[in-house]
Amino acid sequence: MTAPVVRLAIAGALGRMGQAVARAAEGRSDLVVSARFDRPGVSGPGLVSQEEALGSADVAVDFTVPEASVALAEQAAKRGGPALIIGSTGLSPEQVARIDLAAGSIAIVRSGNFSLGVNMLLGLVERAARSLPAEFDIEIFEAHHRRKVDAPSGTALMLGEAAARGRGVALPDVRVAGRDGLTGPRPKGAIGFSVLRGGGIIGDHSVIFAGEEEVLTLSHSASDRGLFARGALAAAVWAAGRPAGHYDMQDVLGLKG
Q1: Rounded-to-10 torsion of CA 231, 25, 107, 224
Q2: Which ranges of the chain have pLDDT less than 70?
Q3: What's the pTM value of the predicted model, to 2 decimals?
Q4: 145 catalytic residue (yes or no)
Q5: Which of 32, 56, 150, 233 is deepest in the core (most CB within 10 A)?
Q6: Which position among 78, 148, 188, 256 bears the catalytic label?
């Protein structure tokens, strides 16, 4: 029996990721773009209102900004659908809680990164943090283009959470972000974050385990925004018809034990 074609709405359709999602959807037989929409008040060829877009779709993909993603989740939950794929980063704990509440009514896949490679890296980082002696210092480095407004990136925070899980600690208790001036020695067990913003860098992430006599580096580099779009489309096909709940890319890829 042939699986039904998934109807896809694209939020932030005029943005870089919205356009990348539209390009990645071209020629696919398992989904079709049913609607494109952008911020309220923004019009353009082929754009419709948010309400019209949600009414025409099985799944909506959203790579916009936190406040817009939360509003979209609440609107979709209120009307009972569609399912959502949220790739916005920089959400506050309160905004995540509101998305969690919306996920009680619809399926929401939210991830700081939709790359297969990054999601494999998460597992490697957690395993390394669990296996290496506590004397190894953990530092997470990330680099993105000059237009990115939040730091550390959502992916860097995911990697930090993976390292913290491996160590059996909570990331907020050991996180160190930003160093300047006379900082003193590095605290034992700290997980540090270093950030670069510049040029057109799409996304580079490294997790460094620094010992006294050796250094292990696990890293991932993105060379094309299309890889995130293709991951989001895989999540969209997976989420269509899925029961209400708050999922992530590890669920989509079947990487959770």
Answers
A1: 30
A2: 1-2, 257
A3: 0.78
A4: no
A5: 233
A6: 148
